[in-house]
Amino acid sequence: MSPQIHSIWLMPSAEDGAFLAGLVADLAGRFGAPLFTPHLTVKGDTDLPIAALAGGITEAAATVPAFREAVAAIETSDAYFRSFYARFHTSPPLALLKQRLDSDMAGSFMPHVSLLYGPVAPAPKVSAAAEFQRMLTGRTIIFDRLCVVRSGQDIPISEWAVIETAELGKTGL
Fold it and tell me: Which pTM was predicted?
């Protein structure tokens, strides 16, 4: 039996999550791409036991209050899971969460929320990126919880599922 693969996601508030999900749906419709839950991956594709991951998010959530982050830019790439995304600066709360939950990869952390998965035609993607750049740059997103999620590159997106959740502290907002 192969190991269970999970990730740790930082999640936007319900209101911001709904807004971002609308953008994902818009882009998925335009480009024939899959739908997915918008999130910021703090630790991806790990086979650590769920209990260890759940304990990690509980401890990290207790040290970091819910916080706002401004979208720094809209960027695109050829990477499947980073085809089109909202990029964030590595602020102190983001850096702290990354250090606590995935210290081995802290030096290469690129905080972002993907808005489109998959290969799409470059010209329309560039046009959409310019449109979203005007709409989103500087807009703040509230992040308020960490989740352990059954997800990974080898797990169909339709089967991704939240397993555990830990609310960030409430003193930051």
Answer: 0.95
CB 169 within 8 A of CB 62: yes
Residue whose pair of structure tokens reads 């260890």 in the numeric block: 52
* Whole-angstrom distance, CA of residue 91 vs CA of residue 135: 22
Q: What is the DSSP string of 20-40?
A: HHHHHHHHHHHHT-------E
Asked if residues 116 and 43 have their Cβ atoms less than 8 Å apart, the reply is no
Specify which residues 121 forms β-bridges with. Answer: none
Instruction: Say what percent of the chain tops pLDDT 90.
Output: 92
Q: Shortest CA distance to 23 belongs to which of 69, 112, 85?
A: 85
Distances from the Cα of 21 to the Cαs of 44, 84, 115, 166, in angstroms?
20, 14, 8, 21
